[in-house]
TrEMBL record:
Residues 6-236 form the ABC transporter domain. Keywords: ATP-binding, Cell membrane, Membrane, Nucleotide-binding. SUPFAM superfamilies: P-loop containing nucleoside triphosphate hydrolases (SSF52540). GO terms for molecular function: ATP binding; ATP hydrolysis activity. Transmembrane segments: none annotated. This is ABC transporter ATP-binding protein.
Amino acid sequence: MNEALLEVRELSKNFAERRVLDSISFTVKKGQTLGLLGPNGAGKSTAVNLICGLLKADHGQVVLAGEDVALGMKSTKMRLGLVPQDLALYEELPAIENLRMFGGLYGLKGVHLNHRMEAVLKLVSLSDRAKDRVANFSGGMKRRLNIAAAMLHEPELLILDEPTVGVDPQSRNAIFDALETLKAGGLALIYTSHYMEEVERLADHLVIIDHGTVIANDTPSALYTRLPVQAALQLDLFAPLETQLLHQLESLDGVLVVEATADGRSLTIKLKEQHLAFSCLAFLQQHGQLPIHFSTAKVKLEEVFLNLTGRRLRD
């Protein structure tokens, strides 16, 4: 089992009379990618700020590689990289000069700094724009440069707070490619996002926070099993399904519900497991109901998230 790199221990934080975080605990192992999720106002950003030492906890502790983050030791800070949601760049400077400045803050200089700037620009596919002013960059390019700046000092843990907000699909894909390269190299990641498909692609562990508490802390596959519906079969028929056959279809093992359109020619069959779609198709074939088209889909992370946090609007 991988050794724990980050330990969040019973962390609590109040703002005035409001408790924003209430004794949250979780760990991040070396090389692990943890998706940190929650509705607006759930406490995600506060948790990130506490982990980075930007806020002081009212109770609890953040331990990174055996060191208490609250002590503010340089050795601890050098293990951590932060990609904030708000861009932290100097627009009038070229990309390379932004990196040179951030490298200086990390104590990097000389040949080593030059090598690191070259490496991180290549990582985020900005090598050919190194001498261009950041003011002329697209939103996606700025986001990628933000990641490059956070990776200059080769941290062991990289925290990304909504890193793809407002970027085009090409830049989003470039960000994913960069993060998957870092992940393959053994870097630990904490990734916060409102885009569930991003978290599904990257994370191998999930922590969901709501109303300041951890309501889920598990692998994606384990969280999927909390839902009765694990998959769905969607199909279009040549002719409407007779009521008797519809009831028989609903009674098949593993079929939870069958939803039909008003004309009865399109069905959505919700299943306990994806492989049960084969028995549904076999049943329809036996009764002369070959579909024009069919497709299967597994449950999405968004359904797990909504099931745990509710569907009520938060803002």
